Amino acid sequence: MLPKKNRPFFSTNLGNAYLGDSLELLPQLPESSVDLICTSPPFALLRKKAYGNVHSNEYVDWFLEFARLFSKVLKPKGSIIVDIGGTWNKGFPTRSLYHYELLLKLCAPVSEGGGGFYLAQELYWYNPAKLPTPAEWVTVRRERVKDAVNTVWWLSKDPHPKANNRGVLKPYSEAQKNLMKNGYKPKLRPSEHNISNKFQNDNNGAIPPNIINGHDEGEIGDLVAVNVISASNTASNDKYLRLCKEHNVQPHPARFPRALPEFAIGLCTEAGDTILDPFAGSNMTGHVAESMGRKWIAFEQDENYLKGSVFRFAPNGTDSKVENDVKVEDDIKNKFAQGTLFEKPSKKYKVQGKQK
Hints:
- Helix 2 (56-73) packs parallel to helix 3.
- This protein has 356 residues and is an alpha/beta fold.
- It is globular.
- 24% of the residues lie in helices and 17% in strands.
- Strand 1 (10-11) and strand 2 (15-19) form a beta hairpin.
- It folds into 3 domains: 9-171 and 210-313, Rossmann fold (3-Layer(aba) Sandwich); 173-205, no CATH class; 318-356, no CATH class.
């Protein structure tokens, strides 16, 4: 918890969301207090977005300010899992290398001006709903294919960060189930990999590759974790978007797919650990963390996005409608405190002045 001068915008049983700039809030966290930072900062895109983004020429230096603070608040065995999308060079059908330059800088020694991190592994988020841009090179001249994959860097302070792939096992395929049932003769594959008789042991699931195969429907825990994250963020009727529209709150335009934080949290943490998202946006990370029994901290400097993130935590079993004479955007904090934000308010929610 941050000092009282930075009271949470809202709280739940397990987490706190703060309104403010991460560069100002991060130094107020205790050192070595966070198990995992899971986030998606603004990308270095050619076109300016409503949520703000930095030009690729400035991006590495910009992000390093945050990275040095991340290192201080992370536990020695803690990890950062950060979604960094690529971009194009202006006026040409060629790709910017800024996110690779950032990775190299983050993994350079501190003595050389780097972040001092290790690259534990690279993950991938495949967004099947991504638009075919830039249109000039993809749909007009037809010189390029659709760019639909983001790189996700898994960084750590230690070569052996806290991690357990048993937390993200995926169901066995029917072929593997038959193999375990009928037996398998150990042999050398054409690739010269030696497949032993342990291949047919039942370990309660298959170890995933670095692709995360997600979707928008279902409950937390339903997703099949692999290591390209296949998940769109275009749902138009989920609870978050429906309640934002209903209460005239601006939703975040570039939301995290649920599959990404679920994979990261399942892989790198256990129940009771603390997850931080310093660029929280709609706070999908906090929502997933709470659903998985982890403590969470969210920082977001846009109050409208923080207001909308409240709806991630709307009580189950209710349509969560605001009373007719209540305007959420007028004073969401007071309505939250008075229990009038939702028709059936949940006792677990607390706001400024009523901290746990």
